[in-house]
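Dear colleagues,

I hope this message finds you well. In preparation for our joint manuscript, I am sending the DUF674 domain-containing protein (Artemisia annua) sequence together with its predicted structure, so that both groups work from identical material. I would be grateful if you could confirm receipt.
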Amino acid sequence: MTNSKMSLKLLVNKRDRKVVFAEANKDFVDFLFYILTLPIGAITKLLAKEPLSGCLGDLYQSIENLNDVYILQNKTKETILNPKSSTYVFDQDLLLIPKELPPTERKIYRCLSRCKYITSEQKTVCPNCRCLMSDEVTYVTTEAAKMAAKAAEEVGFVKGVVTYMVMDDLAVKPMSTISTIALLNKLSIKDVCDLAEKEVHFGMEEGLKLLKASLECKNVLTRVFLDAQDHVEIV
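The corresponding C-alpha cells are as follows:
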C-alpha cells in the first residue's frame, strides 16, 4: 500500500458540514484496526513533526537527545524510538511502521548432482561428487510455514466481502439499509436534500492526519476531509 491511495465515499450533512459516515471497504477498516496495534513510541515517531497537544512529543525528543552512555548496554534507544508493531499484517504498511515479520528462512545448498549432502556454506565441496554445493535450497521453519499459510488464507483483520460504515468518530459496523436509516434518525436528519455524497482519496498524508485527529477529537473524518477543504464546494 506504499505510495498508493484508496478511495472512500463520504455521506456528508451539507447543512452542518459534517461527515455522517464513510462507506469503506476492507483496506480502510484494516488500516483503522491496525492503528490499535501500534506501540505508543511508533505513534509518537509518526507525529514527531506535528504539534501534539500532550507531552509525548517532548518525552520522545528528550529520549532522542539523551546520550547513549545513560542507556543500559543490553538496550538501545532504537527499541523505544522506533518500535515494531507486535501484529503481523501482510501488506498493511500505509504508515510505514516496522512490523514483526515471520522468522527468517535459512538458506542451504546442495550440489548440482543432488547428492544427499547439504550445507549452509555456499560453494562447499560435496563429499560425494566433489562438485561445488551452489544449488540453493530454502529451509523453512515450522513457524515460518504456519505464518506464510495464514497470510495466504486471511490478510488483515476483517472480511473483504462486506461493505463497512465508518462513523465520524471511527466506530465501525457492517453497512446495511437498516443501520443507515437508524443512524439518520439518531442524528435527526429528516431531509435527504441535506445529504451529499463526496468521494475522497486516502493515502499516507491523510493517514497521518487521521492518526493525529483520532487522539484529539471525535469528529475525525470531518476534520481530515472537510475542515482542511473549506474551499471545496459540496454538492
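For the figure legend, we might mention the following. The mean pLDDT is 82. The chain has two domains: 6-97+169-229, 106-139.

With kind regards,
E.M.
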